[in-house]
């Protein structure tokens, strides 16, 4: 540490070491959580101060978003309240706009900042952790910004659930076959985890929901999965990927490989193979890209816009800057392939956060650093209730065993015993009672009824996917 800072100097507490964590997702939360445990004495004495800057006061456990969308898990159990978990940290709700690492300052726009962009605050630090995660990677597809919805946040997951049930209500209430067909057509773009699991869970939910409509049968619903490559779920291996395709097609899901979405203007999905589908639902899950804050720093980035990092999770060629997860290009020391980097997924993120926190704590105390090393053990994916695929430690599983492994693995990774117990209890109750099939679309516009009652006229509509 710098001469004027450090936990102890000749037995006297000096100015606190200021650790700034940018991001409250996997890496941000797990790093801060472990830091407050490893540096418990220093935090208590005031020798260390940890600040977490995050746009949301919670961490979203993203692997459970498909189950939340399907109604298998309550939305509040998919998120972890940061103020409760990180009770020894200072939480700042806001967006980091710029980071000047040379000057050790971060410019943050908080909830209290005026909408004109003024009023941002400056946070100073000694150690910086960059963990902002990633954002959806979009393409210049005509109509995409107007009509599509993503699937990275709990708000999007719940909004999509409400939207799907709402479309079934529309189809049941209309006599116009064109409106009915468009309402019952659901297009998902992207054959990775997010796209496949979201589609499979929602199709499962919608098929169950159809029994409560007198004029909608499960076969009336049209589900289309669009994937630009020649396979889906590449993480589970080619054989399990082919099995997943067979399983989805057996459920009358139209899986289109080596196909792209060319346009979705005027609520018509136009595919590169010439197919056209009038639809009111386009879900975009075609990859992610680094968060914009990375480009607003003076830290070194690689050709893909991620922070170039060492195996110790330091930003390469930079002192007192650390990164992990989606934002970091970390060398994979377990791979024989030269120059290979760790995949930006949850399996690595959680483990990197542990090593990252231990290295920062060691650096604060003047100790040795250790390298991050984790051999990828495999992947699991859900294909709906009681269905899944898995390729773990060289073993391939499908159907119920894979689904059970998927749930068991992700339950073990949910932070805090309290949250684990809540999720397990909800799964147990879901097995005893019927699914909830209620659409709470009004959640997007909670003041709508009051505005009408107060004479304000019809409320403004929200994003196109949630409109009637």
Task: Describe it.
With 468 residues, the protein is an alpha/beta fold. Helices cover 31% and strands 22% of the residues. The chain has 13 helices and 24 strands. The strands form seven sheets. A seven-stranded mixed sheet has the order 7-6-5-2-1-8-20. A hairpin with a 4-residue loop joins strand 15 and strand 16. Helix 1 packs parallel to helix 10 and helix 6 packs antiparallel against helix 7. The protein is globular. The C terminus is likely disordered.
The CA-CA distance between the termini, in Å, is 58 Å
Number of helices, where a helix is a run of at least 4 consecutive DSSP H or I residues: 13
How are strands sequenced across the largest beta sheet?
A: 7-6-5-2-1-8-20
Structural classification: alpha/beta
Radius of gyration: 24 Å
Q: How large a portion of the residues is in β-strands, by DSSP E?
A: 15-25%
- Tell me the overall shape: globular
Largest sheet: 7 strands, mixed
Provide the low-confidence segments as ranges: 7-11, 462-468
What proportion of the residues is helical, as a percent range?
Answer: 25-40%
Total E-strand runs? 24
Q: What is the overall pLDDT average?
A: 88
């Amino acid at each position: 540490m710098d001469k004027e800072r450090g936990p102890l100097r000749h037995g006297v507490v000096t100015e606190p070491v200021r650790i700034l964590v940018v991001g409250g997702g996997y890496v941000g939360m797990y790093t801060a959580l472990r830091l407050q445990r490893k540096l418990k004495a220093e935090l208590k004495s005031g020798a260390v101060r940890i600040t977490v800057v995050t746009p949301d006061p919670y961490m979203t456990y993203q692997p459970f978003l498909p189950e939340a969308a399907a109604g298998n898990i309550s939305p509040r159990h998919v998120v972890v309240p940061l103020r409760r978990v990180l009770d020894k940290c200072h939480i700042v709700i806001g967006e980091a706009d710029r980071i000047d690492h040379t000057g050790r300052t971060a410019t943050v726009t908080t909830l209290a900042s005026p909408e004109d962009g003024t009023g941002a605050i400056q946070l100073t630090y000694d150690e910086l952790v960059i963990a902002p995660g990633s954002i959806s990677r979009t393409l210049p597809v005509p109509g995409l910004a107007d009509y599509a919805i993503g699937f990275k946040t709990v708000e999007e997951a719940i909004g999509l659930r409400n939207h799907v049930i709402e479309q079934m209500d529309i189809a049941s209430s209309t006599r116009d076959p064109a409106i009915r067909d468009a309402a019952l057509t659901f297009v998902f773009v992207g054959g990775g985890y997010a796209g496949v699991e979201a589609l499979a869970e929602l199709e499962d939910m919608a098929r169950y929901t159809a029994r409560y409509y007198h004029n909608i049968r499960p076969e009336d619903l049209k589900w289309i999965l669009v994937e630009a490559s020649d396979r889906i779920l590449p993480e589970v291996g080619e054989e399990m990927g082919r099995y997943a395709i067979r399983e989805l097609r057996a459920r009358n899901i139209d899986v289109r490989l080596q196909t792209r979405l060319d346009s979705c203007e005027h609520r018509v999905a136009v595919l590169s193979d010439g197919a056209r589908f009038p639809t009111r639902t386009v879900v975009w899950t075609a990859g992610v890209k680094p968060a914009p804050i990375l480009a607003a720093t003076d830290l070194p980035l690689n050709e893909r816009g991620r922070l170039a990092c060492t195996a110790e999770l330091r930003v390469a060629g930079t002192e007192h800057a650390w990164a992990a997860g989606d934002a970091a290009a970390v060398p994979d020391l377990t791979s024989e392939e030269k120059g290979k980097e760790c995949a930006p997924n949850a399996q690595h993120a959680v483990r990197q956060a542990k090593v990252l926190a231990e290295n920062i704590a060691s650096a604060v105390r003047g100790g040795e650093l250790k390298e991050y090393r984790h051999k990828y053990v495999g992947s699991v994916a859900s294909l709906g209730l009681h269905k899944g695929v898995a390729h773990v430690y060289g073993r391939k599983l499908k159907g119920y065993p894979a689904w059970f492994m998927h749930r068991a693995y992700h339950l073990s990774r949910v932070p805090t015993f309290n949250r684990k117990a809540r999720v397990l209890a909800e799964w147990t109750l879901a097995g005893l009672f019927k699914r909830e099939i209620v659409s709470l679309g009004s959640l997007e516009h909670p003041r709508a009824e009051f505005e009408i009652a107060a004479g304000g006229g019809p409320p403004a509509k929200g994003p196109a996917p949630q409109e009637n």
